[in-house]
Every structure is written in structure tokens, then in C-alpha cells.
Amino acid sequence: MNKSELIDAIAADAGITKAAAKLALESFLGNVGKTLKKGGRVSLVGFGSWSVSKRAARDGRNPQTGKTIKIAAKNVVKFKAGAELEGTVN
């Protein structure tokens, strides 16, 4: 399912226009991004939670040349599925 299909599904399920569903989805995504950027955590009980983790700098290897390269430290987003979502999938 892509973003436009998700918007269509939200609009149909909620009985709202596609424009309103798009606005709601973009608001949700924007607020999740802002919270994670501040270092916060977003949790939806039953669905899952998003958090930010720091990945340390490390040495890597270029697979074509075998030469050692430096990989910079960065923040990565992690998602942990909730029990209800895992139950739906399994």
C-alpha cells in the first residue's frame, strides 16, 4: 500500500473527503517527525512505538576496492511493533 492508497482507505473508513484524510495523514507524519527530531518517542498502544537511537562512528569497507572508509555517526529511527500488530500479522 502506498501513500495515496492509504489516504483512500482512511477517507473510506472514516467517511471523510480524500483531502481531509490527506491532511490528517500529513499532520500525523509531520508530528511524528518533529517529536523524533527532538529526541522524543512516539507510542501507539497496540500498534507500536518509534524512537531514535544513536549509531556510533565506525570503520567500513568499500566492497569494490576493499579500501577502509570512515562511516560517520548518525541518528537512526527504530520501530518496535506492538503486541496487537504482531498478533494481526501472525
Automatic annotation (TrEMBL):
GO terms for cellular component: cytosol. Signal peptide: none annotated. One of its GO terms (biological process) is chromosome condensation. CDD domains: HU. Keywords: DNA condensation, DNA-binding. Coiled coil: none annotated. GO terms for molecular function: DNA binding; structural constituent of chromatin. Pfam families: Bac_DNA_binding (PF00216). InterPro entries: Hist_DNA-bd (IPR000119), IHF-like_DNA-bd_dom_sf (IPR010992). Belongs to the bacterial histone-like protein family. This is HU family DNA-binding protein. The lineage of its organism: Bacteria, Pseudomonadati, Bacteroidota, Flavobacteriia, Flavobacteriales.
